[in-house]
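Why do we bother with holo predictions? Because pocket geometry can differ from the apo form. Keep that in mind while you read this record for nicotinamide-adenine-dinucleotide.
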Amino acid sequence: MEPVENDTPNSTPAEGQGQLAADDPTTRHPKVSPPKQDQPEPGLETKTDPIPDIGLDSYVGRDRLKGRKALVTGGDSGIGAATAVAYAREGADVAIAYLPVEEEDAQRVIKAIEDAGRTAVALPGDLMDKEYRNGLVDSAVEKLGGLDILVNNAGRQIAIESLEDLDDEQIEKTFQVNIISMFTLSRAALKHMGPGSTIINTTSVQAYEPSPTLLDYAATKAAINNFTKGLAQQVASRGIRVNGVAPGPVWTVLQVSHGQPKEKLPNFGQSTPLGRAGQPVEMAPAYVFLASGESSYVTGDTLNANGGMPTP
Ligand code: NAD
Ligand code: MG
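The structure, written out:
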């Protein structure tokens, strides 16, 4: 895929019209109709059909995060990987955290960060492991030489048909990874953050419209919105902003590693007003905006990128 440049003031009217047509949101990215498939959790993006678009061939940076230092959890694949690639191309050094079994996916992202001329740091580990979770931010700070951006993006989503089949172990694991780790990592990060720093949490449209098969997952996403609004008020006077991004249905390996009932995959995302699932690369600009000074008057908010699904 050719890099997509935004229209510039110097372009001719004809070029501008061409870009406008290319920006049609219903067709800007292909409508995926994924075949039924299955991978053990967390799954590998590189083995997903079709492979989600994390912007490796298309994201163009414009120095909007020059010299910043970022930690992105779940940065090996999907939305976190697209964010990590975009941050590096916007001029930031980036540490990514991910599960050790995801090394193959992570290495693509590490290479993309290095190809952008930035420092890449790989920090594999399991956020359910308290020792790893408690030490993760300090490891990132040590290797990056500081921290200005924390993206709490790692998430676990396992669909279960009925509450009677949802056991305590799954509920606890989902809460550990999706929300408890946000408390731990944000607390550790704040020790190193000064004015201008930002924390960005990945929530979901599930916070407002829970699927009946995702009770534990959706509950964590609602909690993340609430945590974001509360923490933002606590640290605003220190010049630190806290926001969330709420994706709608985005084509990632999360969906094929038990995140959705299999029969739903071929129609994934097609019931949104835009008629298609999103791609991870379409989420990255929201994370760039919220990390950069361009969003200086935005804090405690959740930016929805969901194909037009109504939100409160
Ligand atoms: P993904 O599978 O590519 O990314 C999720 C990442 O979470 C994994 O790569 C993994 O590194 C990390 N993770 C999971 N369990 C972990 C653990 N125990 N320890 C450490 N890391 C762990 O899928 P994605 O869709 O890009 O998910 C990223 C975030 O986006 C998640 O928080 C997810 O809930 C959220 N989200 C996704 C969608 C969607 O439709 N894909 C929609 C709304 C929100
Ligand atoms: Mg992954």
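The beta strands are 69-73, 93-98, 120-124, 149-152, 198-202, 241-247, 302-305.
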